[in-house]
Structures are given as C-alpha cells and as structure tokens.
Amino acid sequence: MSKIPRKLGKTEKDFSGKILKILSQNANRAFNYKQIGAILELDDTKSRNEIIKDLKILASQKKIIETEPGKYLVKAISQDYYEGTIDMTSRRTAYFICPEFGEDVFIPTNNLNHALDKDKVKVYVYNRRKGKRPEGEVIEVVERHKTEFVGVIDIQKNFAFVSTANPKMYTDIFIPKDKIGDAEQGDVVLVNIEDWPKKADSPFGSVLKVLGKPGEHNTEIHAILAEYGLPYDFPVEVEVFAQKIDTTIQESEIANRRDMRDTLTFTIDPKDAKDFDDALSFKKLENGNYEIGIHIADVSFYLQEGTILDDEAYQRGTSVYLVDRVVPMLPEVLSNFACSLRPNEEKYTFSAIFEINEKAQVINQWFGRTVIYSDQRFAYEEAQQIIETKGNVIPQEISITGSEYVVKDEIVEATLKLDELAKILRRKRMAEGAISFDKVEVKFNLNEQAEPIGVFFKVSKDANHLIEEFMLLANRKVAEYIGKQKKTFVYRIHDEPDESKLISLQTVISKFGYKINLKSKGDISKSLNELLQDVQGKKEQNMVDTLTIRTMSKAKYSTENIGHYGLAFDYYSHFTSPIRRYPDVMVHRLLQFYLDGGKSVSEELYEEKCVHSSTMEGLATNAERDSIKYMQVKYMQDHKDEEFLGVISGVTEWGIYVEIVSNKCEGMCRIREIKDDYYTFDEKQYALVGATTQNLLQLGDEVIVKVKNADLVKKQLDFHFIRKNE
C-alpha cells in the first residue's frame, strides 16, 4: 500500500510547547500572536485566542518576556532548557540524557519533533515537581548523530520508502523518484537523509549505494559495515600511494637503529593470522637476568603524517574483525607485508626492551627503534604444546606447516622461561586488584562460501597469557615513562565500575548463590574475580560473564590519565598493535618525539584524536558483534528441526531470552507462545510466573527450545518454548 507523507494535525488546544519551540528557534526575534498563528497555520478565532492565553501564561511563568505590548521573546537563559542526547527506545518513545539531570527525562513520541537516536538536541523540561517523572519536548535538533541509514527499499510509482531493521529508527525514509538511482524493488540500500520538512511524517533522502538483495551473504556483511559508516575497501588513490612506498630494508636506516637481528626472536599468533605486529626476543645475560624484547611493527616509519594514507588510517581508527573477513586499517602492502613481522625476514620495529630478573622484576628498560630478524613463527596451539609437554616436538595435527617438526632447544628454553615469568607477572596483577575476564569467544568454522558449518569456543590458555602479559608490560611501561614526565600522551583509561550497576548484578547473581563484597575498591575486584572463577564451567557462566562485563565502565582513549581499573595499572597505553589501531601509531610518534627531546604537544589536539579513536573503536565493536549475531542466525537456519538445551539469559514482560548452551546463540520465546500456563512478569524475582501452576521461569533455568524463526536482516532468532528441563 502506498504511503504519502501527511501533514501535522491542527486541532491541538495547548500550544505552549509549540510556542516555546518557535521562540527558541528564533531566540533574538520577538513574535506576536498573529505571527505565531501564521507559522502554526492557525487562523480561526478559537485557536488565536488560545495562543493569546498561552502567551500570557508563559509570560507569567517567566518562561518568555513581553518586550513590548503583545510581542514576546524567549527568555535568554532559562533553567528549563537543556542540551543533551536522545536515547530512543524500541517503542517510539525516548529518554533525554543530560549531565545536569540525576535521572533521564522521558520524551513521548509526539514530543520528539524529528529527533532520532543519539541526536544532540535542545529540550524543554516540564513536570519537574517532586514525585513526578520529568518529561520533555525536543525544541531543536542541534546536531544529527548520523544521516546515513541502511534499509530495504519499497518502490512506488512516483516515490519510494526505505525502512530499516533498526528497532530504534521509528520512521521510514521518503525517497523522491529522481533520487532512487539504480535501486530495484526490495534492494538493500544505503540512504542519506537530506531534509525533514516540518510538516512531513518522514524525512526525505536519496539512495547513495545499492548493497544487494536481502539475505545474500555479501549484502548483509556490507550492510553491517554501512550501518556504522565503516568502509569495506580503500579508495584507489590510497592503494596507489601505499604501493609506491619504498618498503626495502636499507643499510642507511639500519645504522640509525639498535640492531637486534642476532638475538633469538619469534612470534606467537593465531594460526590464521596474516598480520604479525608483535615479536618477542630472548637472551640470557651474564648476571643471570634476562633481556626480553617486545618488538612492534614500526608502522609510523612508513605511515607519514600529512599523507592521504595517514588521513585514511586516522579516519578508520581501527581494523574491523568481522566473522568472515578483516577490514584493515592499512592497505595490505603494509598490514600483511612491510609491517608484518614474518619469519626469516628483516623488519623495522619499535621496541620496548627490559632486563628482568627471576622474580619478573624490571631492572632496566630501553625504548627505541630497532631492526629484527624473526627466527620462527608459532601458532598459539604450537606454543601451548611446548609449554604443556616441555618438549620440542610439534605434532602434525596442530602444526601450521602441515607436518610434524622439531623446535630448536634454545626456542623451547626461551618459551618455557617466558611462560614462567608471564605467570609471575599475572599473579602480581591479580594480587594488585586486576580483574580476570577470560570470556568464552564464539568462533565459526566456515566453508569456502563463508557459510557457517560449525561453532567452537575459543578459550585463552597459557600461550595466550604469555603474549598478553608481555604486551601489557610494554604498554604499561611506555605509559609510565611518559606519564611521569607530565607530557601530553595518549592513555588507555578505564574508570571504576558504577555502584548502581554492581548492585543490579548482585541482585541477579544472588539467585545462583553468588555475592559481591562492595565494601571497598579492593574488595570489589577480589570478589568479582572469585565470582568469575566460581562460574567457570557452570551453565550460567556466559550470562554471568556478560553481566559482569556490563557493570564495567567502557575503556577509552584520553590524554587525561586516571589509570586502568580492570588491569589495576596507574599508567596504561596502547603501544603494541599499530597495524590495527591508530592510537598505537600516535603513541609511537609521541614516544619517538619525546625520546628525541621534544616538548609536550597540544593536549587539546590529541584529546580530539582520542575521542575520535574511541568512537571508531565503538563502531567497529558494534559491527563485529552484529556480524557474530548474523552468523549465529545463519547457522541456526539450518537447524530448525532440532531441539536445543538453553539457559534463560533474560526475562522481560514480553518473554524470555534463551541462550543455547552448545553454541551461545541467543533468541526469544515470546510470553504469549508459552502454552503450558498463562504467565506474567514478576520483576522482583526476574521471572515469569504461571497463573495456575505457579511455575517459575527465571534467570539461569534450563529450558528446551526449537528455532521458530531466523531473521537474517534483523539478525534475530525466535524460539518455540518446548519445556523446562527438569
């Protein structure tokens, strides 16, 4: 059925909100009742009298000023106007988030006035009396959070509409006939909102790009990237620029660096990795201590400031790791070749080199540019084999060469000593209050068509922890070295958890017999670690892990150092992954600049870059999460006839969320479709309660479900509730 944008109604009797909106948008101009009536298209006597009355009431409330008889101006500064952001719900209402309010302000649908999710807006707040929930009306959209949206196009004779799968996007987008482009009926498209006329229900837009047909694999992956404004290829001019960079190793450049080519060096990475941005070197010193080098690809040597390549890398901010592909921050010529620390090749690196004793204490440190030669590349599984067997034979089934092979004794000795030191470093961190998040990662086995044919869980083992501890050491010591000089730097910071979120977590986990000690910062981190340890291997583990992570503040980049709560570090930065994170490139540049005697740089400039980097990281994380959801839905499409054991991971008034134990896929059983009783939601018990049987369906209960619907476009699973697993 065709839709045409309709005009706003004209029968509203209380015009106070609309009057305030008109006067606020024209803050320096006075209006009389006739001018306001003309803007509102109201010319009947009854409505005009209502406007006159409302103007007098607003003036008596001191919300507007009568500048001359019958002419009114909005008060220059009013305590009832605030700027903040819109947080849409999926019910077409919203909350206004503003630092000046202790609670969020409710915005009814008819008061949104064209504001969309996360827009920066100016809001008039009313109902501020004690005991009443504050409500507001959007007076002005100050800045759109985004104007590009992904959706499916429905083409009519003279126009089209694009509807999105985003539950927070409450309107479709009207596309005039001349702005449909090459789109065909039912295509997934990327559109840009160009205008939203005052009297139109829907914003007006144009098609920027056709992504393909709904449900097709590449279409949906490209749609995920486009939804977050992320690219999936490089502009031709950037690729050409990267190809022209001289990536040969020059003797003249080696002369400027510390030569580490004769020191035993190797890499440990995932078996399917293509970019190796870190390597470890190991040497036993005559005094009994160890020289351990953390060598990081010297990206900033090739990535020069002020070039189109650097501009592109900065805009991307990070590589994006989707289920079936990586969208790199840097073109392949750098990420997979020149900057990748591949075995048996000389490479330029930026290094943190430490003299460490048997107690894993740092005796001396050195930072600077180096040249290395990697003697060996290991997958984590191979390094784990050495750690577990203390032997040097890598069996065929885990060998990245495809054949059994023998590792040199000196590399085995180095790996075992590094593992021993890493375990001491890890124990120290935990004792000082670090929190151990070893959350199970869901991974997919894909066939050649990128179809999911199996699910497996990635668990961190000793080899992963070995690399992690030495990367953490380098990141911490670099940040500490600059931080103590009080110079502008790019820190990775993490604030303490929000107490109200911890109390909510306590309420949920108490149902499983767990508790958190909230007395002090130290008690909190200790009891969180105990909780994460206690749930390991239990059916509720993934749910408790997820809820615990949600209580944490988000880590971000900043020039203002407040430390890193989760790692229990006073100083922390990101130094170790410049191939895939732009903040690490900034850290390398600043570190070298300060090593060369440079004075502190502009804090304001770098804070702006930090905010941009944190934003891009957030978008990449959302895209990665969406790609996992998409793959889970795709995987479950082929398992519709099977019964699955699941755990109730969420309870709401409209149903229960169930996470399948064997593959961590989550879907919803709607309350009206649970047929063995009539259920209602009991908020206090986090449960659905059967009216007749008093049966409880609560968090953590095991249930049997079947797939009812797998929606690839919305990335949603709906389950049939079969029974409770008694």
From TrEMBL:
Quote any Pfam family the record assigns: CSD2
Reaction(s) this enzyme catalyzes, per UniProt: Exonucleolytic cleavage in the 3'- to 5'-direction to yield nucleoside 5'-phosphates
Question: Which compartment or compartments is the protein found in?
Answer: Cytoplasm
Q: What class of enzyme is it?
A: hydrolase
Which UniProt keywords are present, listed alphabetically?
A: Cytoplasm, Exonuclease, Hydrolase, Nuclease, RNA-binding
Every copy of the S1 motif domain together lies at 641-722
Q: Does the keyword Zinc apply?
A: no
The UniProt entry, under Gene3D superfamilies, shows:
Nucleic acid-binding proteins
Top-level taxon in the UniProt lineage: Bacteria
Give the main localization category.
Answer: cytoplasm
What EC number is given for this enzyme? Answer: 3.1.13.1
List the Gene Ontology MF annotations in alphabetical order: hydrolase activity
Q: Which family does it belong to?
A: Belongs to the RNR ribonuclease family. RNase R subfamily.
Q: State the function annotated in the UniProt record.
A: 3'-5' exoribonuclease that releases 5'-nucleoside monophosphates and is involved in maturation of structured RNAs.
What is the protein name for this chain?
Answer: Ribonuclease R
Organism of origin is Flavobacterium arsenatis
